[in-house]
Design goal:
Mean pLDDT: 87
Strand content: 15-25%
CATH topology of the largest domain: Rossmann fold
Largest sheet: 5 strands, parallel
CATH class of the largest domain: Alpha Beta
Number of helices: 14
CATH superfamily of the largest domain: P-loop containing nucleotide triphosphate hydrolases
Number of strands: 11
Helix content: 40-55%
Number of domains: 2
CATH architecture of the largest domain: 3-Layer(aba) Sandwich
Distance between the termini: 5 Å
Structural class: alpha/beta
């Protein structure tokens, strides 16, 4: 792969990213990979699905991100009895004006946190399809647009847990990536306990001040469009996507939208690394979080206990990396 020199000045952006990571580290210990992927999705204008057991700071991370970019924030707790109107809003008759008025639901915000998204049934899940894909909501024949900064961060417990539902494939495809939030490392676990025991070095969420304005975020997002990627790397992405459709372990492979998602995520991640060009490692790193939730495994594969992440990694290993 030929050497590419920087053509886009990323100095200001790199400084802001470093500042964001420092501030997040004051509140959340560890989870560096999760934070990197969340910032990548934020820059790529995509939604994120965070999966992990309760208590690993999924909700806290979403709230913290909203505060740091000065975004309007709303939180929706999904439950089995939640109705679509509870999310989107509904028309209410105003006796004074003698007409119906639309009362917006919590989905009308800039950063929407959906806690335990897989605890609601399919009817409520479907209410999110339009707003996640087209950044708009249509109710009673009227379409209402969202702001330029709009991001859904959903948390999910492992589907094996009691009282959870599988998310529809069409909805999973609307998430740019699925990030698995693991337990902290032993040394991080010890540091968490020390901080809480001694009440030192603890930064409360309400004390956090914004670092990035929404206008500056939109400016940084525009940088992603100018990131250089060689044709050989576009072919590399295409080869990975096509390979998911020709793998016996996979019943339903990745769609063209999945390939575009890998491309956009790779460009955003390159910017986060201070580069204005994509390298193969960007694609290899992001292929798993971008693809793992979009693949439907065959019945035999699921019975064997193999995961989509492991199969995606195996596919990537078999495809020749561009030189």
């Amino acid at each position: 792969m030929e050497e590419v020199t920087n053509r886009t000045d990323l100095t200001e952006f790199s400084a802001k990213v470093d500042e964001l990571k420092v501030k997040i580290g004051e509140v959340i210990i560890g989870q560096e990979e999760t934070i990197d992927l969340l910032l990548t999705a934020l820059l790529a204008d995509g939604h994120v699905l965070l999966e992990g057991v309760p208590g690993v700071a999924k909700t806290l991370l979403a709230k913290l991100t909203a505060k740091l970019i000065q975004a309007d924030f709303s939180r929706i707790q999904f439950t089995p009895d939640l109705m679509p109107s509870d999310i989107l809003g509904t028309s209410v008759f105003n006796l004074k004006k003698n007409e119906f008025e639309f009362v917006k639901g919590p989905v009308f915000s800039e950063m929407v946190l959906i806690d335990e998204i897989n605890r609601a049934p399919a009817k409520t899940q479907a209410a999110l399809f339009e707003v996640m894909e087209e950044r708009q909501v249509t109710v009673d024949g009227f379409t209402r647009k969202m702001n330029d900064v709009y991001m859904v961060i959903a948390t999910q417990n492992p589907v094996e847990q009691e009282g959870t539902y599988r998310l529809p494939e069409a909805q999973l495809d609307r998430f740019l990536m699925k990030v698995v939030v693991n337990y902290p490392h032993p040394e991080e676990e010890l540091l968490i306990l020390k901080r809480h025991n001694e009440k030192t070095h603890l930064t409360r969420l309400e004390d956090v001040r914004p670092i990035l304005s929404k206008e500056k975020l939109l400016t940084f997002r525009s940088l992603v469009n100018h990131i250089y990627i060689e044709d050989s790397l576009l072919k590399y992405i295409s080869d990975i996507i096509i390979a998911t459709r020709n793998n016996k372990a996979i019943y339903l492979g990745a769609s063209p939208r999945a390939g575009i998602a890998v491309l956009n995520a790779a460009k955003a991640y390159a910017v986060l690394q201070g580069r204005d060009f994509v390298i193969p490692d960007d694609i290899k790193y992001l292929a798993v979080p971008v693809l793992q939730h979009r693949l439907m495994l065959s019945a035999e594969t699921e019975m064997e206990g193999r995961s989509a992440a492991a199969i995606t990694k195996r596919i990537i290993e078999k495809i020749e990396v561009p030189k």
